[in-house]
Amino acid sequence: MPRGRVAAALAFVLAWSIPSAAWSQQTLNIATWGGAYGRAQQIALLEPYARKTGTAIATEIYGGDVENVRSLIKDGKTPVDVVDVSAGALKTLCNEGLLEPLDPESLKTDGDAADDFLPGAISKCGVASVAWAMAIVANRKAFQGGPPATIGALLDTGRFPGKRALPNNAQRTLELVLLADGVAPGSVYQELATPEGADRAFAALDRIKGNVLLWSKPEEAMAWVVTGRAAMAAGYSGRIFRAAVVDRNLEILWDGQIYDLDAWAIPKSAPNKDEAMRFIRFATEPAQLAAQARLTSYGPMRTSALAQVGKHPAIGVDMQRFLPTAPDNSRKALRFDELWWEENGDALNKRFAAWAESLRAPKTASPEQPKSNGANAPSASAP
Predict the structure, then answer these.
(1) DSSP states of 162-227 as a string?
(2) Do 166 and 302 belong together in one domain?
(3) How many secondary structure helices (H) and strands (E) does the chain include?
(4) Single pTM value for the model
(5) Are residues 306 and 206 in the same domain?
(6) Nearest to 207 by CA among 254, 252, 160, 277
(7) Spatial distance between the Cα atoms of 66 and 165, rounded to a whole number of angstroms
(8) Which residues form the signal peptide (predicted)?
(9) Are residues 121 and 269 in the same domain?
(10) Nearest-CA neighbor of 84 among 128, 45, 132?
(11) Same domain, 89 and 140
(12) How many Cβ atoms from other residues are within 10 Å of residue 242's Cβ?
């Protein structure tokens, strides 16, 4: 997940838990992300669980891709009890038999938890805690007639002129332009899998080619739209939140958002499976999900948690505006399919790279016409 997570794994132990020996089988060992997301987990989940149960917790911050997780859990040498993984990694590791199957009944708290979790939250080997997203953010100052309200504005440079900052990556960029071109969220990957659908996506990109800026670092998207270099930008929801609470001219366009999930799972090699399940049950209770969302702007994956989020505890901002899973924000949303890209993305990635290179290539000047002394010059009335 692109949220400023560290690339290299490094272990640290929470100051209130255990000394630096870290990976002890007498502790609950959790592999998760770093950055603002990890700090929010510590405040909303890890510290409260330690206080409530007396359990010592050690955390491992890791890079987040499948290889990172696999290296931590495959041979069982590092006693990880709980992992926080992306939806794509969850499915891959589950299919490889490296994760414990999850019993949905074990997540019940008050009433039927399965009905309270949002669609897609509970799977065979994990339970999603939060959703994060890519959405369009627009600078109101760039649009005298008002900011755009639908994803179609991305392709409408007539009504909404200005540069569009898009990821320098086929993933999510092609989905965005298909959504903007009128493809329903449920049909995007089916469309993109066909030659005609791929052509449609690149034709949509060509329509705005002169108004596209490609960003390679997520922070560039927000910087460009804040400074006015771009009129609108596709950015990640956590960064949009941090930018929008500072610059009130930024308008978030949730229509056509592309969201993904993070989920808790238990490795097959976990030495403390019962304690791991108790932690996951606690971490996915509505109150804890709401407490985490209050700090991060990542959307909780339970309906009852959404109603409890309220305002950010430090800056007093109502967080509903920034949550990908809030009802008003998720009406037209596409769930990102990481595995689809792994299976179908090679040709599209290569084609996009060539398209991006053509965007950066200098325009070739027209050949200079031979100078004339005027004897053979056309008259002003010539067609």
Answers:
(1) S-EEEESSHHHHHHHHHHHTT--GGGHHHHHTSHHHHHHHHHHHHHTGGGEEEESSHHHHHHHHHH
(2) no
(3) 14, 11
(4) 0.86
(5) no
(6) 160
(7) 29
(8) 1-22
(9) yes
(10) 128
(11) no
(12) 14
